[in-house]
Amino acid sequence: MNKINIGLIGCGEIGSGVVKILNERKTLLKQKIGVELVLKKICDKNLNYKRRVKINLGLLTKNVREILDDPQIDIVVELIGGINPAKDFIIEALKKSKYVVTANKALLATFGKELFDAARTANKNIYFEASVAGGIPVIKSIKEGLVANRFLGIYGIVNGTCNYILSKMSQDGLSFAESLKEAKKKGFAEKNPRLDLEGIDSAHKLILLTYLAFGRLIPLEHIRVEGITHISLSDIRYADELNLAIKLLAIAKKEGNKLDVRVHPTLIHKKHLLASVKWEYNAIYVSSDLAGKQLFYGKGAGQLPTASAVVSDLVDLAKDIKAGLFRPTLEINPDTSVKLLQDKDNIESRYYIRFVAVDKPGVLAQIAGILAKFNISIASVTQKEKDRAKVVPVVMITHEVKEGLMRRALERIDNLALVKGKTVAIRMEDL
Predict the structure, then answer these.
(1) Pairing relation of β-strands 75-78 and 60-61?
(2) Is residue 390 pLDDT above 90, yes or no?
(3) How large is the greatest C-alpha to C-alpha distance in the chain, in angstroms?
(4) Mean pLDDT score of the chain, rounded to an integer?
(5) Quick one: what percent of the chain has pLDDT higher than 70?
(6) Can you tell me whether residue 219 is helix, strand or coil?
(7) At what angle do helices 363-373 and 403-414 cross, to 10 degrees?
(8) Please, which pLDDT band fits residue 326 given cuts at 50, 70 and 90?
(9) Helix axes 303-323 and 13-24, enclosed angle (nearest 10)
(10) What is the pLDDT of residue 368?
(11) At a CB cut-off of 8 Å and minimum separation 6, what does 283 contact?
(12) Residue 161: enclosing H or E segment and its boundaries?
């Protein structure tokens, strides 16, 4: 075999990057793997899309059957995103005895079991390095580099949009709205960034990381997911005074025989490596029994970093095809020490709480009384300067408390007549 044919479905920003790399690094890749990677056909719904790469018009088609039904195409690359028709295309490609490379984290997080089972039935592979953290080779590192390890915890900054916004607020003193506007202007946020801002994108990536590390494909509805839309510039500043930084973390960690999986804004000490990860960059902090603690850092999004990960998968598959080898897709043995998924209400954390109260005697006593009723112990209290409306921001740090108790206490506090607006509560992690 001297060449391997590739069919690309979806040629937008990332797809164009894949075309660019395959064109410009054609000779280099052939020297490294011993076979030529040939882009045989490109399917896209918009043939007139102004791509930042030169494409032979003869390769373009709107008819996906020209890829799926072509027996000469060995690998199908799916880069259209979303659930359908991407899912149908992947399953059809597997049935047609083709290997699959995808960057579709939402699809794999939702229908991963079905797709991986379909790959096993077809005796083919699905590779998905580009689905988590763009150009950072974290999936391969967990699957192969750390294969002998038992994992203790994974803490990831895996959404560049949110990290850019929080960095902009922290570094430049902009409000959330101003930072979001800047992120859109720079191309780090989509026109509708809801999935990013609400933590859903991070949760999809966490599901895949959790499967790789702990052998459990956890449904999205079983994960506590919170975004960053409630974080204000005041919280950023108050955290800074406490020598803490706010990051949107995707967390999966073992606690005894239970697996704790969640996504939410998190306060971490500024000395920790994750606190220094700024702007659109991603980082995944991995703790394992043999290798200890490691940090994977780099560009988590963008055309060329993500396309680089796609091409990495193409190269791995090409090597296997050339050698006549088959490595089953994600033959992962579950971590038998994990028996249960931690109940959302029983997750324990320290908390930063910020509420705004009318400047009158007895308000703090009322709030402290409610917290005491739910066995929530206060570690520190800081009262900030009151504003023109005669209300006072108050920041509290609690000792560890179960989430269910904290949520019930905050509902009571928010119902007090002297408390204005919704109380902000941010979990803290001692990494």
Answers:
(1) unpaired
(2) no
(3) 82
(4) 95
(5) 98
(6) coil
(7) 150
(8) confident
(9) 60
(10) 95
(11) 136, 156, 157, 273, 274, 277, 295, 296, 297, 298
(12) helix 160-172
Predicted local confidence at residue 203, as pLDDT: 98
Report helix, strand or coil for 424. strand
Three-state helix/strand/coil letters over 294-320: EEEEEECCCHHHHHHHHHHHHHHHHHH
Establish whether 98 is a catalytic residue.
no
Q: Does the structure show a pLDDT above 80 at 328?
A: no
Tokens of 15: 């797809």
Taking residues 204-225, report their average pLDDT: 95
Distances (CA, A) of 140 to 144, 145, 327: 6, 7, 13
Are 181 and 213 a contacting pair, CB within 8 Å? no
Would you give the DSSP letter of residue 143? I
Q: Which of 40, 124, 168, 205 is catalytic?
A: 205
Pairing of strands 258-269, 224-225: parallel
What is the rounded distance in angstroms from the CA atom of residue 217 to the CA atom of residue 206?
Answer: 10
Nearest to 100 by CA among 83, 82, 86: 86
Query: How far, CA to CA in Å, does 268 sit from each of 36, 72, 178, 272, 377?
Result: 47, 52, 24, 7, 20
C-beta neighbour count of 217 within 10 angstroms: 19
Instruction: Identify the DSSP state of 230.
Output: T
Identify the sign of the CA torsion 195, 197, 198, 201. Answer: positive
User: Which pLDDT band, with edges at 50, 70 and 90, does 387 fall under?
Assistant: low
17: CB partners within 8 A, 6+ apart = 53, 303, 304, 306, 307, 308, 310
